[in-house]
Amino acid sequence: MQLELTEEQLDTLIGDVQSLYGYDFGDYARASLHRRIARLMTVDRFVSFAELRYKINSDKDYLARFIDMVSVNVTEMFRDPAFYRALRSQVFPVLATYPLIRIWHAGCASGEEVYSMAIMLKESKLLDRSIIYATDINPTALGVARAGIYPLSQMQKYSENYMAAGGSEEFSGYYTAQYDMAKIDGALSKRIVYSTHNLATDSSFNEFQLIICRNVLIYFNQVLQDRVFRLFDDSLEGLGFIGLGSKESLRFSTVAESYHQINAKEKIWRKGRK
Fold first, then answer.
1. What residue ranges define each of the domains in the chain, with the CATH number in brackets?
2. Tens of pLDDT along 104-140?
3. Within 13 A of 188's CA, how many CA atoms are on the CB side?
4. Three-point CA angle 8, 9, 11, nearest 5°
5. Which residue of 90, 203, 217, 243 has the fewest C-beta atoms within 10 A of its own C-beta?
6. Pick from 195, 159, 192, 191: which is nearest to 175 by CA?
7. What angle, 0 to 180 degrees and rounded to 10, lies between the N-to-C axes of helices 63-70 and 139-147?
8. DSSP letter (8 states) at residue 262
9. How high is the pLDDT of residue 248?
10. pTM to 2 decimals?
11. Residue 32 has what pLDDT?
């Protein structure tokens, strides 16, 4: 039987996590938080809210488990292939004009889309002068991303996505099969920097020509979404690009007037000059 949290209990737990560990989930979508924390209580067999609260307050090592369950880590390589085709045809020619290309994958989860970007940059002969900063709130997911090891059973789907995204090589050349797992080519990792970053509380740390944050903002309320868009705006060079998920939009944010959508179907915006 799944335990239900009251709004008061959820507020208490959010306050505990913020005061003890500095993670602010206050502006995350409430319904999603309710579902994920309720599932955590069921999976880890807490018999009451009080028991969960005691565990979080008394065992700092349990925080990683809590974040892993509460944050969203659903992703795949070349997810939404048309988005990657648009990047390749409309964004990469602009990036090619820069001597050093800086890209931020915010909320990168377990890294599949980061490696997708690295593969496309390699095929466009841009990887050697690119740095991809891959960040996420979840250190467990970042560990998976750093390792670059994924179930071999997913490679067929990823290969189909890759071809639909305009891939020009044999996708199997980008990984090595190891029993039932696939290890992504280590050469791709050399241009990737992984780091924890909390979009709810952390500040800008560089200036980028392209920021990718896909299917993350749908789990934030409007206040936090706008905070993140201002963070991205502060982090993006003039004439830089922002790529979002299919259900996300920059259109109604406080920075919207500084951007125009470059593709009628794909969620890619370009910033005006500073």
1. 7-70 (no CATH), 81-271 (3.40.50.150)
2. 999 999 999 999 999 999 999 999 999 999 999 988 8
3. 26
4. 65
5. 203
6. 159
7. 80
8. S
9. 92
10. 0.86
11. 81
